[in-house]
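[Protein data]
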Amino acid sequence: MALCAVAALSLTAACGGSGSDDKGEGSGSSQADKSTVKLPKLKGEKVQVAAVWTGDEGKNFTKVAEAFEKRTGAEVEVTPTGDNVETFLGSKIEGGAPPDVAMLPQVGVLNQFAKKGWLKPLDKATKDQLSKNFSKGWQDLGSSDGKQYGVYFKAASKSLIWYNSGAYQNAGVSEAKTWKDFVKNAQTVADSGVEPVSVGGGDGWVLTDWFENVYLSQAGPEKYDKLAKHEIKWTDPSVKKALTTLAELFGKKELLAGGNKGALQTDFPTSVTKAFDSTDTPSAASVFEGDFVGINVANDTKAKIGKDAKVYPFPAVGSDAPVITGGDAAVALKDNKAAHAFLTFLASPEAAAVWAQQGGFISPNKNLDGKAYPNDVQRKIAKALVAAGDDFRFDMSDQAPAAFGGTKGKGEWKALQDFLKNPKDVAGTQSALEAAAAKAYKD
């Protein structure tokens, strides 16, 4: 965990206070216009791409697709999958009409699809881009049984606390380095008249991220890896300890915006806007989630990133602060020239630069120019992610079978929502988690 600690420290220095919203000052557009990778001419060809992104994220990914169209002459159609990517794609594949390319937000689904023979191995041009632009850790995440299938185009740094600088200043609190200080600060903020922490409990994946950060920092990377593979049960004492720790926050309704009931009715986008709907007396003082919070702040609030909206690393529960990442891997479901060319493009720095300059995005591509990012906060989050090299842990729920870690109203999402409703029931939560995990991993 030594490099994880370094990455976390670099975030502390980079993101804690002095970042500025300097959108437009970067030179991302110049790198987006560069041609570092040779692509074939594909006039008349069509590429159907299935991705989970909608709204602002969907619009930004469309800009990437348009850049590919301009380079190759191909026509790209982007189709939204909805939250249950596995079900959407599974029905398309089994019905004989899969898209050419799919963006998979769960490495567990990538492995499942590979084992079923649904994915096409990457061609040489794409693998050449991967070896040039990505660390071994990111390449390994896109492989299964020794074959390379995925390109991790969009990454997420999922160990961040975003806070309303005015609310923190009015309460007289600063960025917390430890979980103990974080909970203590939350109580101080509550006493100042502002609800401390906005939790998007209506989206189960947000709760899995809360748990994973606490668990990794407290139990350590070896236990984390074993739990991710279900080599230890969810009834393990380490899980009990993590849930008990999380209950120090979830178990005090005055620390949650809207209390436990309100948190369960709050989706992720709303959890962000609650923290930044006012510079003086917001609906909440802070919100936990990844770097992608930035796009909601920029587009759904009047807060300025780096001034009104600031960020610091998830506080250390154990000896080290956690560094957890997520990401979306592009895979080919059809073995054709256009599909492979699209994956090759996504593995290049210029494709990453197209979205990076829009904001709400970070890339594990180590050759993407940091100037592509629109502000210091996102630039330095991305720099820390790349600097971590291979020493990070991928989102645990995304490594699990989708039935357990990625299905709305079921598995881990449902069990942790029930836990948020009743944080005292640690044993019941563990039993529910283990029962769901045992079934999903067996299947």
